[in-house]
Design a protein that fits this description.
It contains six helices and five strands. By secondary structure, it is α/β, with parallel strands linked by helices. The chain has a single domain, classed as Rossmann fold, CATH 3.40.50.620. It has a five-stranded parallel β-sheet with strand order 3-2-1-4-5, sandwiched between helices. Helix 1 links the parallel strand 1 and strand 2. The longest helix is centred in the middle third of the chain and has 17 residues. The protein is globular. The mean pLDDT is 92.
Length: 163
């Protein structure tokens, strides 16, 4: 069984993430979405909320499992018995960072391959950071996230849903 891991903070999960998840799930028998703690990013949603969001958004994809993790990515991938790490690329800046990370990960475990998927052209500009910024200034984020996520982000920025 070929197992892949798609790691990220998913704060919030965007249509770009969903594109990579759907396409990545077709490449492996099982795709594990690793929702990272990553406190350095000052997430809008708690880890449990983000895991719940990703589970809800991916519920229709049969070979996807959602797991939180707080470890080195390669250690997490080894624990999951993954042979592939799936990463999405939007722009040249993503490539430079991801290329360096893939090289470091290969030094840690050369049995786990990193596979890069280019984001759909229509979804390339989407970044969770920008979605949160647009929402915080009262902008519409409906083009970037599902309706359910748009409501939750809107509620969070308006202060109606505090953790």
């Amino acid at each position: 069984m070929r197992i892949g891991v798609y790691p990220g903070t998913f704060d919030p999960i965007t249509l770009g993430h969903m594109d990579i998840i759907r396409r990545g799930a077709r490449l492996v028998d099982k795709l594990i979405i690793g929702v990272a703690t990553n406190p350095s990013k000052s997430p809008m949603f708690t880890l449990d909320e983000r895991v719940g969001h990703v589970r809800r958004e991916t519920a229709e994809i049969g070979n996807v499992e959602v797991v939180s993790f707080d470890a080195l990515l390669m250690h997490f991938a080894e624990q999951q018995k993954a042979s592939v790490i799936v990463r999405g690329l939007r722009a040249v800046a993503d490539f430079e960072y991801e290329f360096q990370m893939a090289g470091m990960n290969q030094q840690l475990n050369d049995q786990i391959e990193t596979v890069f998927l280019m984001a759909d052209v229509a979804l390339q500009p989407i970044a969770s950071r920008l979605v949160k910024e647009i929402a915080s200034y009262g902008g519409t984020i409906d083009k970037f996230v599902s309706p359910a996520i748009a409501r939750e982000v809107g509620a969070r920025v308006s202060g109606k849903s505090r953790s």
